[in-house]
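Input record (one chain):
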Amino acid sequence: MAEDYNAKNLSVLEGLDAVRKRPGMYIGTTDSQGLMHCLWEIIDNAVDEALAGACSRIIVTLHADGSIEVADNGRGIPVDVEPKTKLTGVEVVLTKLHAGAKFGNNSYNAAGGLHGVGSSVVNALSSRLDVEVDRNGKTYHMAFHQGHPGIYRDADPQRPSPDAPFKRTRKNKPTELQIIGKVSPRTTGTRVRYWADPEIFNDTAEFSYDLLIDRVRQTSFLVPGLKIIVIDEHIAETGDADIDDLMEVDAQIGSEADGEADDEAATPASPASATSLIVTQAQGHTHRRVEEFLHTGGVKDFVDYLSHGEAVCGIWHITGTATYSEETQAVDENGDLHARKVTRDCGVDIALRWINGYDTTLRSFVNVVETPGGGMHVDGFLQSLTKQIRKAVEDNARKLKVNLKDASTRVERDDILAGLVAVVTVRIAEPQFQGQTKDVLGTAAVRGIVSRMTDKQFGEMIAGSKRGYKEQSARVLEKITSEMHARIQARKTKEVTRRKNALESASMPPKLSDCQPGNDDVAELFIVEGDSALGTAKAARNSSFQALLPIRGKILNVQKASLAQILANKECAAIIQVVGAGSGPNFDIEQARYNKIVMMTDADVDGAHIRTLLLTLFYRYMRPLIEYGHVYAAVPPLHRIALAGKHKGEYIYTYSDDELAGRLEELTRQRIDFNSDVQRYKGLGEMDADQLADTTMDPRTRMLRRIRMEDAAHASDMFELLMGDEVPPRKQFIIENADDFDRSRIDT
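The corresponding structure, as predicted from the sequence alone:
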């Protein structure tokens, strides 16, 4: 009622409390993705120093206690007092949302962290955060607990802990920075060490070392000359490399040898400093896992790294700088915002090449922030790329055997993207992103700049007028027009095929036991191993929406076969025909006749091999089925325990030997009688219809495993390794991973 709703019912969250209350608004999720997002924010702040030309080295340390430290040799967070808040620059950056030098247009011409919430959000979501800053010949230190400044009383200063006693700074009282040491007057930098708060992140949140390495590697490509070192204290390294060799000798340290700093000033500030940390580890009994990344070739090196396959052309480079104007809100001397028209610089750096195949690898970045959703820079690039290639095809139509009078023989974007490997980057001040996660660039002026630059430079390359590009251009155009002709031919074949009703049994393989029409949204296709299992499955299925397609043993390994061999193989051809959506680059998931494709094979090694072969077929020629989560593996039981006594007629199914042993032990402990003769199913055909329905086919009681593809590039490499022609790499993989075999990872 209205009289029960008063001002006292309103809650006011001050400072960073709002971040802890609604963390998803700032980092997306509180699972693994959000956990990694916090690290990206801190690393990006260090990289921004490199983009400003003030940092040449970043060290990321994964401490054994679960904390993470990011150290850079940039300018260091300002330590003087900010006039408006009366707080030091360190406290402003780490406790105030939307605060930082990146709003002012002067300190950073291009930066990734532009919302001014990165460091403060990480601070809010950490159980403890320590920051050290080297400036003015001194090392300053400040600590925080869940975003609040204060002082920790660590039992051992060498081993800081978030569980140590903490005294919070009084409210509205400025916090003074502690001076904990001296450094060379020319030594500057920032070190941030934080412990993610378990009160914020859920139980599924896991740190991914592989994601960190991928991110660090790509950053080293995007910022040529920046050395990034990752130190993992969790894993000992067996090599003989001296960790000191991984470090650059800073110009600041070099000044000590020249007598520009006294001995006292040159003393390392604290054991938490990057340099002293490396020295401490080098003096220990074991090395730590250390990985170093340094590239000088920029995006050209990046494209070379991403290219997997035979190159059609060399790496083509588009680069330049242009200006644009935009109206922005600028902060005046009084701290007020006013609209002002400013001129911005936009640096464009694009590298591309074509390789054989039809997979596309297109990575886009703004400054060093990846934009998986693309945006204006990608739109401008693809627009001009398509325009210039179409023009080149028209100019060389006779040589390429393209009939310009036929309206259908027009190069489409998909023809161009087949086999394209490209990295598109722009560097601009204050880019407009869609959301804090920065997936899409929205700065409209960038599209025109990238488009014009691509028009001019790529136009000269693809036309062959630029020296050294004539032969490469001819190969690229030949590949693109070949893709166009293949697409047109496939479309004609598809149109002829689809004139028949896909649901007519005459057009389907005779061994298909189809379901009733009209249930496309829930229809399921069970690919069944063997005729004996088919008979049982027919009696167990619900024919209104469940279809059955039997296969005879192991199908063709399509990783090693040509397309002609695949189409000639009855089992593969039948699966492609029954799914009804085509294959390869012409696969259209909208035409798929079933919502779920379920692989139902025996729970043994042969069954696992058959599932792998089927997955290879789906991945190579019907990939969207996996990408959109339509492929499943049935989970039939291995054993059936028949209960006795007062539970007679009841059954328990188990799915592994370990589970069987555990259930039998549990039944014995609970004094529940059971038949000692436990039935073990050697195959699906040994079950009767009711058992198969209850355990494997009935949606109300069954268990299915959805096949996912979180990382397409990794999945592609793994399929090539396990199913390809090259035997030595596969043998080496088996030898190296035999000891790490984990039974629980099968089928996941």
